[in-house]
Q: What sequence folds into this?
């Protein structure tokens, strides 16, 4: 079709914003090309040779436009600071010389050379090519050598122990380190830029300065905003005043766009696949995509970790200063330096976290999109390697675990480095006494290694069970309607609970092993102090305040790496397992279409559209193929012909279509087709969205063709009677459409696309004979399709005789090909029964003569699509709570855990902290009294041992009680939620997408299982830690009391301001996650249809939009969290400086009160230092707990859903119903209050033992009779009486178990065939085989492996027709007096249908049989026929 504005562009990049246009109908005008994303309009003036030369020069000599904003700021800021420090040092040298203290020659040389160096750099920065000079490899090497040569100067300065000189020299060295690292980073980046292609470099040159000027209006202002996260201020203001919406969120940076993240990761995966075709690794793919920026973050972490030890060193100097009682101002300088060091570390800490989080978000979106893309491109045969639950877990769990690997890798080297530095500094304090602490650590290494291996094994087993549970949960939700009709929901629940029990078994193993890890690592610092100080004293040394409290501060620095290490190991184990699972999935061979464009293939002279030569296909991808589904098929289909594919149930008709689509594995031979393809599956796949979206399916909207297609498919009248017209919303899987409407909507999609090859899999079976005749005449045989090649799998006699070619399939082979006329005279004439042929002929004549009963406006006059106005959507918008997480959520979680366990956990945590504080107070008393009194050392050591033992015991109690409570809560939440869902009415499942429910049972439940107990444990530890610090500081430092009230006021204001926003962001995050899982579940069902229409890019772009929204919420959430963290650390730095300054003032005697002994002052200072991390950690863990509790909140929403009325007061006889008489008395049923009644004052009686057929046009209310009989939907008025008993008075499950039913959509679950037929194991095998024989399915079952064969997921081991026969056999085995058949012969050939009719007549003699049918032959021999029209009986 010609585009209105020019030639269509399938894949094009905008030169300005790099916006990719993905097959979305975007056009570029030849007159004025522009981008719809940024309205960029490139001008095309003729360029001069000088301009071209300048561009080439820019490629060779890249300028500052290639560096990031923060790099440019540091490149200018560091030389300025360095020059200022050098000037100050020279000034001080001059001042000393004037005072008669001349400095040495080398000091003058050093300071002057430093000033000259920084001045030269500032001068060079004024030139265009300054980076070429600074990034020269010789100078880069010199910077590294300069750092090494500076170490002796630094060591000499620190040996003097002069505070000011130490700080001054440290700043100079830190500047050299930062500048050297920055220059080397820029040099490596520019080297990689020069390796890129000339075209990309030219684009970068063209875009660089323009992007920079647009994005960064002010360098310093933007730098300050980035460092302090002020960009989130507006969002925080909105969050404090109102409920946040998606429009209030921050805009994503361009490098975090999910499309670019997908392209980056996917390209690296393709490269990895080419280099290692057999075993490509997702881990190395991630390294190639994000390895360099990740390594650069390691440099920030090195500086940040090293700066963390400045606090203990400054503390040591300050305590020594206080002990000496010096009167100079070094004490004030040290006190202020403590606060400034904390501030500098907070900047580095938050920037590292920010950039790491950005990298994780980019990786997460990349993983999600490539998993989604893989599902779009993997054929059905290759997908059989994985269950649907396993694939769902890839997206919901494995992607997150792989992303968390980013934290673990840096921590793997960082934590040992921090431990090593802390041990070295301990050596400087207590000499070789620290070996006792090292011994404890070394002894724990093999223990933790063994525990880590056990955790890895338990995690792997747990993930396997989780996959299986999610699969069974998805199966339960998908077929909940059928399960309720069978009365099997409790049976399925019990099977699901067994899988959950195994999952919890491995989860509990992991949690208790984690508890041992927590115990070992949490008690290590206490044991460390005991053994270190004990050995130090036993070696003959005397403890003093400086030594003890410097060591305590270093122990506090050890706590974080020691406690974090087991979690790092666990995270790495989880990540490795998940990356391997994802690598296996992503390595699957992608779908290879058999279709080629017409101009690219040369077919035979007969102009065939499809050619199959000796094709052998199977659904399995194993190397040893046990069974061929298609066996040596040879077939040639001419262009423009209508081909009817017929055959018995399970003969391979649907497999023939799937082999042409490329969905099966081709073992031998060849299959070729040409042109575009449209496909309608046997079970129509309906997209959640508007009716128009389902029809046009990404194609351009043509109103004329669109109207013609709707009329041809008999949808125009349905839509005209629907509120909202064709823009009405269709629920998930077409939940608010009848079976016939779904089939016609899927057919309309195929007709509208006007493809060269149209494949229809039994589309006429779901509609009645009149509608089938209309569709055949006005769609399939009409000008809309008569020039196309059409392949129709069908049992419809009219369609068979209207076809040009008939293909007869039998046991996977093409048995006969010819015209319909020859077919009736061949050996396969039994497929066409004479009476049906006559009936069909009469019906066709009526259509052609325009009989009034077949006019198009009558076809669907009773069909109204069940859509309401927007105020009463059939699919409810997901609810989202407002305000803070309510106290009831905390109370509910505590009750799930058990109040006694909650009490024990809290009490043990408080006593644990008390024992630890007592240990420190005892040390303080020790160092104060040893100088005055001569108590034996053994007394101090024994009491210290008592505190240590108590702390270890209480730590163990806390760890295991928390593990037990978390497991108990996980079990209770899952069981209660599952029970509530199983007992919910069908209306709930009709209005709630299964992806939304599955999100609760997968992602939210995983949070409750694992993440929530973990973060709650941290919160409790932080709370009791802060409580202990506050009590100790108030006790030993009276001046701290003056700070408590103002400090608490500011702290509460900041945290309230943040929490109000963070809650909303977390809820938005949860809401934005649901569409991702819903769309993912949707494409898992319809992937073959999407591939047939070549609409992969359309669905990928839609999914990217969902991920983009998810990305925005997560990005805003991270920025808000870091905004809080930075400000809290500023606040904590002030507290540290305040206490230190008060201690200095008190030591000078300037205060009227005594601030205590040196031991108590040292204790106060050592306790003030962790406030920096503890305050931030407490509020972070508190807000994270609130965020995680949103999962509990969301689960609790579904624990309050309406429940079916299960109880009844009527006690039934064991053999009820005895007669099977069914009476409807003035029954009215409507599915929603706003919808018209599906049954209107309906009254009829079905005598016991009779067979009754119910007929009517699609949507007339036939299935609603069964819904009312099985009480799936409550009736508004009237009564239903069965054998003189009102069914409303009977227990619901008891009622459903007394009826047998064969549903419209056949249902087989994964398991053995015997379990599918007789799940309660009530019948012997011989009876089951006899029943299968009566249903004409025995031979196929024996060939497939007998009753013990394993049914694949969704019953794909059998065709749809075979599944219906098995469901019929299941109903026969039930042996009840009432049998309900809902279109059970719709997908069965007429020959088998005739045999089944005879079987039903003979086997069900004396039974009440209610049959809903479309085929006239099905109801010809019934005792009575009920004709329904618009929910009433038609006279």
A:
């Amino acid at each position: 079709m010609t585009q209105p504005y020019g030639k269509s562009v399938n894949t094009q990049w905008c030169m300005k914003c790099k916006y990719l246009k993905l097959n979305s109908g975007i056009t570029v005008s030849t007159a004025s090309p522009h981008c719809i994303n940024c309205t960029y309009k490139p001008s095309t003036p003729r360029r001069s040779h000088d301009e071209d030369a300048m561009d080439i020069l820019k490629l060779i000599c890249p300028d500052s436009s290639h560096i990031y904003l923060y790099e440019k700021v540091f490149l200018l800021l560091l030389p300025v600071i360095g020059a200022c420090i050098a000037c100050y040092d020279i000034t001080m040298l001059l001042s000393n010389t004037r005072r008669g203290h001349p400095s040495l020659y080398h000091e003058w040389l050093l300071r002057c050379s430093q000033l000259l160096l920084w001045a030269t750099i500032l001068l060079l920065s004024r030139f265009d090519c300054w980076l070429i000079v600074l990034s020269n490899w010789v100078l880069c090497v010199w910077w590294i050598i300069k750092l090494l040569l500076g170490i002796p100067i630094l060591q000499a300065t620190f040996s003097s122990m002069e505070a000011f000189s130490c700080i001054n020299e440290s700043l100079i060295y830190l500047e050299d380190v930062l500048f050297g690292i920055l220059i080397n980073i820029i040099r490596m980046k520019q080297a990689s830029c020069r390796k890129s292609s000339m075209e990309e470099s030219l684009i970068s040159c063209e875009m660089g300065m323009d992007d920079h000027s647009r994005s960064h209006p002010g360098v310093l202002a933007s730098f300050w905003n980035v460092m302090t996260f002020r960009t989130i201020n507006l969002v925080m203001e909105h969050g404090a005043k109102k409920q946040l919406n998606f429009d209030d969120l921050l805009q994503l940076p361009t490098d975090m766009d999910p499309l670019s993240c997908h392209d980056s990761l996917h390209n690296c995966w393709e490269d990895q696949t080419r280099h290692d075709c057999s075993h490509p690794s997702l881990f190395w793919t991630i390294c190639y995509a994000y390895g360099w920026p990740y390594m650069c973050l390691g440099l920030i972490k090195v500086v940040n970790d090293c700066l963390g030890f400045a606090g203990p060193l400054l503390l040591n100097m300050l305590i020594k200063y206080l002990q000496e009682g010096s009167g100079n101002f070094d004490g004030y300088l040290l006190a202020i330096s403590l606060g400034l060091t904390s501030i500098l570390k907070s900047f580095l800490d938050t920037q590292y976290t920010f950039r790491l989080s950005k990298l994780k978000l980019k990786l997460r979106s990349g993983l999600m999109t490539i998993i989604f893309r893989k599902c779009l491109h993997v054929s059905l045969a290759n997908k059989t390697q994985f269950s649907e639950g396993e694939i769902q877990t890839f997206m919901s769990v494995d992607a997150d675990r792989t992303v968390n690997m980013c934290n673990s890798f840096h921590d793997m080297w960082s934590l040992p480095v921090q431990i090593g530095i802390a041990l070295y500094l301990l050596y400087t304090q207590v000499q070789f006494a620290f070996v006792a602490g090292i011994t404890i650590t070394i002894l724990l290494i093999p223990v933790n290694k063994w525990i880590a291996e056990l955790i890895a094994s338990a995690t792997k087993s747990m993930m396997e069970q989780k996959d299986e549970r999610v699969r069974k949960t998805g199966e339960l939700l998908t077929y909940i309607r059928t399960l309720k009709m069978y009365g099997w929901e409790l049976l399925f629940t019990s099977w699901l609970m067994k899988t959950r029990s195994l999952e919890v078994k491995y989860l509990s193993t992991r949690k208790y092993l984690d508890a041992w890890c927590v115990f070992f690592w949490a008690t290590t610092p206490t044991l460390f102090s005991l053994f270190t100080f004990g050995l130090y004293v036993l070696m003959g040394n005397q403890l003093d305040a400086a030594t003890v409290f410097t060591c305590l501060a270093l122990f506090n620095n050890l706590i974080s790496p020691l406690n974090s290490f087991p979690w790092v190991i666990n995270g790495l184990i989880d990540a490795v397992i998940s990356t391997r699972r994802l690598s296996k999935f992503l390595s699957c061979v992608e779908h290879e279409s058999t279709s080629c464009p017409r101009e690219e293939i040369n077919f035979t002279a007969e102009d065939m559209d499809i050619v199959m030569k000796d094709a052998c296909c199977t659904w399995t991808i194993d190397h040893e193929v046990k069974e061929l589904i298609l066996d040596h098929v040879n077939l040639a289909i001419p262009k423009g012909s209508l081909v009817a594919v017929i055959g018995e149930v399970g003969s391979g008709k649907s497999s023939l279509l799937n082999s042409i689509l490329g969905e099966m594995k081709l073992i031998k031979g060849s299959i070729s087709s040409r042109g575009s393809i449209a496909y309608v599956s046997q079970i129509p796949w309906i997209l959640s969205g508007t009716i128009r979206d389902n029809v046009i399916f990404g194609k351009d909207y043509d109103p004329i063709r669109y109207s013609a297609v709707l009329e041809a498919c008999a949808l125009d009248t349905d839509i005209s009677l629907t509120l909202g017209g064709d823009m009405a919303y269709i629920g998930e899987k077409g939940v608010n459409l009848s079976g016939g409407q779904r089939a016609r909507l899927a057919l309309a999609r195929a007709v509208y696309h006007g493809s060269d090859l149209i494949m229809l899999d039994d589309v006429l079976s779901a509609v009645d004979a009149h509608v089938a005749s209309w569709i055949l005449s006005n769609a399939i045989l009409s000008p809309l399709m008569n020039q196309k090649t059409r392949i129709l799998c069908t049992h419809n006699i009219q369609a068979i005789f209207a076809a040009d070619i008939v293909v007869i399939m039998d046991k996977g082979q093409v048995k006969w090909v010819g015209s319909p006329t020859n077919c009736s005279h061949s050996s396969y004439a039994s497929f066409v029964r004479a009476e049906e042929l006559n009936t069909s002929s009469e019906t066709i004549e009526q259509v052609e003569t325009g009989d009034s009963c077949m006019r198009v406006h009558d076809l669907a006059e009773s069909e109204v699509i069940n859509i309401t106005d927007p105020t009463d959507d059939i699919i409810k918008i997901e609810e989202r709570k407002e305000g803070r997480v309510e106290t009831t959520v905390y109370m509910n979680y505590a009750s799930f855990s058990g109040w006694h366990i909650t009490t024990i956990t809290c009490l043990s945590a408080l006593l644990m902290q008390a024992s630890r504080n007592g240990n420190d107070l005892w040390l303080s008393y020790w160092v104060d009294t040893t100088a005055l009194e001569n108590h034996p050392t053994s007394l101090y050591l024994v009491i210290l041992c008592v505190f240590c033992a108590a702390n270890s015991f209480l730590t163990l109690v806390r760890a295991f009680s928390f593990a037990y409570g978390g497991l108990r809560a996980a079990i209770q939440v899952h069981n209660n939620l599952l029970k509530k869902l199983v007992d919910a009415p069908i209306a709930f499942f009709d209005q709630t997408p299964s992806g939304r429910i599955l999100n609760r049972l997968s992602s939210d439940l995983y949070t409750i299982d694992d993440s929530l107990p973990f973060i709650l444990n941290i919160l409790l530890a932080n709370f009791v830690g802060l409580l202990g610090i506050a009590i100790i500081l108030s006790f030993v430092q009276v001046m701290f009391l003056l700070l408590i009230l103002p400090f608490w006021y500011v702290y509460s204001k900041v945290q309230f301001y943040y929490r109000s926003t963070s809650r909303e962001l977390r809820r938005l995050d949860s809401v934005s996650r649901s569409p991702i899982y819903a769309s993912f579940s949707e494409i898992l069902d319809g992937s073959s249809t999407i591939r047939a229409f070549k609409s992969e890019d359309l669905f990928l772009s839609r999914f990217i939009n969902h991920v983009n929204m998810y990305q925005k919420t997560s990005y805003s959430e991270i920025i808000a969290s870091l905004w809080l963290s930075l400000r809290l650390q500023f606040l904590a730095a002030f507290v540290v400086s305040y206490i230190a300054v008060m201690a200095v003032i008190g030591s000078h005697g300037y205060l009227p009160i005594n601030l205590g002994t040196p031991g108590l002052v040292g204790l106060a200072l050592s306790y003030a230092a962790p406030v920096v991390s503890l305050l931030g950690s407490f509020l972070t863990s508190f807000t994270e707990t609130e965020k995680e509790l949103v999962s509990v909140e969301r689960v609790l929403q579904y624990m309050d859903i309406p429940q079916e009325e299960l109880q009844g007061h009527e006690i039934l006889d064991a053999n009820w119903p005895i007669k099977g008489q069914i009476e409807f008395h003035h029954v009215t049923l409507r599915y929603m209050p706003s919808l018209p009644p599906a049954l209107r004052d309906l009254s009829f009686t079905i005598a016991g033992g009779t067979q009754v057929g119910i007929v009517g046009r699609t949507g007339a209310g036939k299935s609603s009779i069964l819904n009312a009989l099985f009480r799936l939907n409550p009736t508004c008025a009237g009564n239903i009486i069965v054998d003189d008993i009102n069914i409303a008075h009977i227990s619901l499950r008891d009622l459903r178990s007394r009826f047998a039913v064969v549903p419209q959509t056949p249902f087989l679950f994964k398991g053995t065939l015997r379990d599918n037929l007789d799940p309660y194991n009530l019948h012997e095998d011989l009876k089951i085989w006899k029943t299968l024989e009566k249903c004409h399915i025995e031979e196929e079952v024996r060939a497939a492996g007998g009753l013990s064969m394993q049914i694949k997921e969704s019953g794909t081991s059998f065709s749809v027709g075979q599944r219906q026969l098995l469901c019929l056999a299941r109903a026969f085995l039930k042996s009840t007096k009432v049998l309900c058949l809902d279109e059970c012969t719709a997908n069965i050939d007429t020959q088998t249908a005739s045999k089944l009719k005879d079987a039903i007549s003979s086997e069900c003699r004396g039974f009440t049989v209610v049959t809903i049918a479309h085929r006239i032959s099905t109801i010809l021999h019934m005792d009575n026929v009920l004709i329904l029209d618009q929910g009433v009986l038609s006279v």
